[in-house]
Amino acid sequence: MRPLPVAAAACLLASVSSVTWSQEYPSRTIRIIVPVVAGGSNDVLARVIGERLRERFGQPVVVENRPGASQMLGSELTANAPPDGHTLMLPTATFASSVATRSKLPFDPLTDLTGVAMVGVGPFLVAVHPSVPVRNVKELIALARSKPGQIQYGSAGPGSIIHLATEVFAASTQLDLGHVPYKSGAPAVTATVAGEVPLVFMSMPSVWAQVKNNRLRAIAVTTGKRSPFVPDLPTIAEAGVPGYEASQWWGFLAPGKVNRDNIAKLNTEINRILLLEDMKKRLAAEGAEPVTMTAEAFTNFVHSEIAKWRKVVKERNISSS
What we know:
Helix content: 40-55%
Shape: globular
Oligomer: single chain
């Protein structure tokens, strides 16, 4: 038998190596970077899903909290990690709004990161202080128009997803609302409960206890359809602002050049985990529903979110500072 030419042998070796690389994945500890402090929704979800991945892959999974720069620090670390599928990140919708408000980043969010799997989606609640004489969105719009510049809203900081979602509402209704930024969502909720600001758009877990105790009044949800967790609350679109939609979402990203077979393997396992009953309950505690989609579809979704918020930032002249 004649030996293979050097070029042919090299091609065969590369082919075998590629197959082996995919089949052996994961071959060591998987690191999930959470770009916020411990205890947040994505931190909780990363730990729950990470434990399931450990069981399925037979490899350790560690969660590493790397907060800073509105999720951009963790994003940069992920973008610069070896593209072997052993480093993932679990951001929220704030990732897209943070990218949108920054003209310069040390990484390219469209090419240096890629989607792995979506995890879930949920609404923000539109909540007002009980002293505000409105019980629906139309009344809120009428009040704000009668007092231009006097109705203020709290946010989790300049350029946060809550900031941008409220600015879209203001633009869609031609309202002049005052923006009062706080360091995070928690102090914004506290300020609204105290009556320092009359209005806030906030995730369900952040405000629901205050709503149940009548310290805040929820009047709408921001998603395109009603939430099964608060089915009596109309969407903002239903309440008179056609086309309005903003949502909280969670999903996994990886370095941009990860082997597609490894991405597909992760996507399959994460989607299976999301269909488990205990996972649905965990997401429900965050006011969210599981969403399964391909890695390509999630990548396209993230890119569309970045484009959407970049348009808002430009039109409303918003910066992260």
